[in-house]
Structures are given as C-alpha cells and as structure tokens.
Amino acid sequence: MRKLLRFLIFSLLVLGLSFNIILAETEKYVDKNLGFSIVPPEGWEVKDGKPYNLAVIFVGPADEGFMPNFNLNIVAVPSEVTEINEDLLREIKEELKAAGEYYGSLEFVSEGEREVSNYKGYEIVYTINLSEDLTLEQKQVYVLQGGKFYIFTFTSLEDTFEKYLPLFEESLSTFEILQ
C-alpha cells in the first residue's frame, strides 16, 4: 500500500506541476466504468486522465503563464482500509513532503476534515517552492468510500490560488458516486 501511495502522490504532484493544455468547452463529466460524475468549471478543458493513470483532468485558462488544473485519481484500497485515519494521513504527508523536496521545498499551509457531496473527507493545502520566483499551491482532497480512495488535486500558482479555488470547490460540490 505504501509503494502504491508513494507512486500516486508523486504522479499527482508531477502532473499538477507540468500540465499545459488547450482550452475547450466543458459539461458534466460522467464515467460509468469508474462510477462517478462531476461538473468541471465552466470553460475548463476536460482531458482523459488514463494516459497519466488518472480518472480525469480539468485544465483552466492560462494565467501568468500557468494553467490551473485539477485531477481525480481513484484507487482501490484493501478491505482493511475503512477510514482516513492518522496512519494514512501520516503516510500521505510523508510522501507529499518527499515529492515536494524533490522539486524544491514544500510547506504545509492547512489541513482538516471536510465533506465532499455528503461524503466524509480530508484536505491538505500546501505550497511548493520550485525556484526563487515560482511557487505553486496545491489542495488535495481525499474521500474514502466503498473500497475506493478518491484523490482530488487542485494546482495553481500561489498568486492565483485564491482566484481559482472557488471554481475547484464549486466543481467538487457536484461530485457524485454512481450506484
């Protein structure tokens, strides 16, 4: 589980740091195979996440040379993993810190319990200082439901984080697990 978690956290961090894609119209995204739906922010491009081992990627307009984006990864978890507990959170934070240090430095900004469409969840917000003049801010939101671990990762420049965060939160509020 730890190796899988390490790979996932590292992959999500890399994708958030390096995405540059063209804009397109968006609408409600439904993936019947993975069993979820979500409405992306208006005007953000919907990209197939499968080439990156993700469920879906949403990419916003370029702002200050960077395209804010968020993605969803869904991972099947062992049956003994039934809640987002301190052990799991410790592992996530260790992997985030290691991945962040690979690129520069990582600083945790906030974390705490939250709800995502009536599902119990957890969020971690952090900055990644890539260079003297380039800092990204990311928010990861985690939901564990029905043997699946849903990981939403929102990434933008630190300077534009608050500008695009409401769009991410609005989209996240539309998330549904299909029955």
Give the end-to-end Cα distance, rounded to a whole number of Å: 26 Å
- Extract low-pLDDT stretches: 17-26
CATH second-level architecture: 3-Layer(aba) Sandwich
State the helix count.
3
Please give the largest β-sheet.
7 strands, antiparallel
Structural class: alpha+beta
CATH fold naming: Protein Transport Mog1p, Chain A
Number of distinct beta strands: 10
- Helix percent band: 25-40%
Listing every helix as H and every strand as E from the N terminus to the C terminus, the arrangement reads HEEEEEHEEEEHE
CATH class: Alpha Beta
Proportion in β-strands: 35-45%
Our count of domains comes out at: 1
- Please list the strands of the largest sheet in the order they lie side by side: 3-4-5-9-8-7-6
Mean pLDDT: 88
Could you say which overall geometry the principal axes of the C-alpha atoms support?
globular
Per CATH, the superfamily is Mog1/PsbP, alpha/beta/alpha sandwich
**Structural Rg:** 15 Å
What does this structure look like?
The chain has a single domain (about 30-175), classed as 3-Layer(aba) Sandwich (Protein Transport Mog1p, Chain A). It contains three helices and ten strands. The chain has a seven-stranded antiparallel β-sheet with strand order 3-4-5-9-8-7-6, with helices on both faces. The chain has a three-stranded antiparallel β-sheet with strand order 1-2-10, with no helix packed on it. The model is unreliable at about 15-25 (pLDDT under 50). Helix 1 crosses helix 2. It has about 180 residues and is of the alpha+beta class. Strand 1 and strand 2 form a beta hairpin. GO terms for molecular function: calcium ion binding. It comes from Dictyoglomus thermophilum.
